[in-house]
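Good day; I would like, with your permission, to put a structural problem before you. I would ask you to consider whether the tokens describe a fold that such a sequence might reasonably adopt. The full record is reproduced below for your convenience:
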Amino acid sequence: MPQPEQRDEVEMLAMMLLIRRFEERASQQYQAQKIGGFCHLYIGQEAVVAGAVAATRPDDYFITAYRDHAHALARGTSADACMAELFGKVTGCSRGLGGSMHYFDKANHMYGGHAIVGAHVPLAAGMAFASKYRKEDRVTLCFFGDGAINQGGFHEALNLAGLFKLPVIFICENNFFAMGTSVKRSTSLKEIVDRAEGYDMPGEVVDGMSFREVRDKLGEIIASIRKDPHPAFVEARTYRYRGHSMSDPASYRTKEELEKFRLEDPITRMRAQLTREGKLTNEEFDKLDKSAKERVMASVKFAEKSAEPPLEDLYKYTYVAEGESGVAFKESSEQEGVSPAKARATKPARQSPPGKSRRSDDGASKNGDAADTAAATSGSKKA
């Protein structure tokens, strides 16, 4: 059976830099009104998804919530396809139809990008059930925030995963806030990881600001799951340096708290570790950073030049074509004495409003980019 790739740590640092620079550029393009809708940034949490990628195989399944840009990039979706999706262009990873919260890349086994809080957790259980049913040696990794753990579907999914011993890891990226609500005010348990015990699955807490700790702990859990399929729960304690979304000034937290976590910056920490061990020089880091910035800038140009989805595609993904799987639609139409083809042909066309119709998430904070850039390129105060 295929084994996880031994991912070079410098390569993984480069991945984290690409994610950081992509998110910073997305912030700038959003403020320039090139990106519509909502936009949730992953700045500060890069070690979680990088560690997960380093511990898994390319054929394992990833599924996540709305803060999904990093998961797509980490799994191998190109920066071009990711930026084009933010711009609503046909060259995007979801053909311009999903936007920031609905990335999807089947080729790289990244199955979303889901906007409804906690709604994808049952999907992860279903994916793991399919893997076990087909006797596939795959593990599903399901990422979500601390705000999802109080949703009904979350508990139902963990119950089924525990009952059927499904090969899935539920990874709570605990950044301590569900939008603007502190986890202390929303969750009865003092430790989120204790949720695992109620569903007869092992639970672990990891430092989500440490790439190595995330990689090593997930590696141990995945090895155990491949040997004897079962679910697991991981609480990765991390921190987002920006607000919940671009419209959130994050006034609910103090400057002292933010600065405390900036000292734990995952990129700065990993750079310091590799430099101290003789695996990376300052010049080499600068080259990695320059390369990441160039790739992201090129992705912006690609997105700007790409075409928008044509208007005639408006209903393209609404109904199933004749002869394809569409049992429910056929049955409901035929019961009324109307064929599916006739039903589609007689449906009135929608009028498209003039100009752009994408919703804007106004009120973006414009003070974060410089601080995040400085944090990633400065020396670490803690290895």
About this structure: The longest strand covers residues 168-174. Strands lie at 61-63, 140-145, 168-174, 177-178, 181-182, 203-207, 232-237. Residues 326-344, 346-367, 378-383 have pLDDT under 50 and may be disordered.
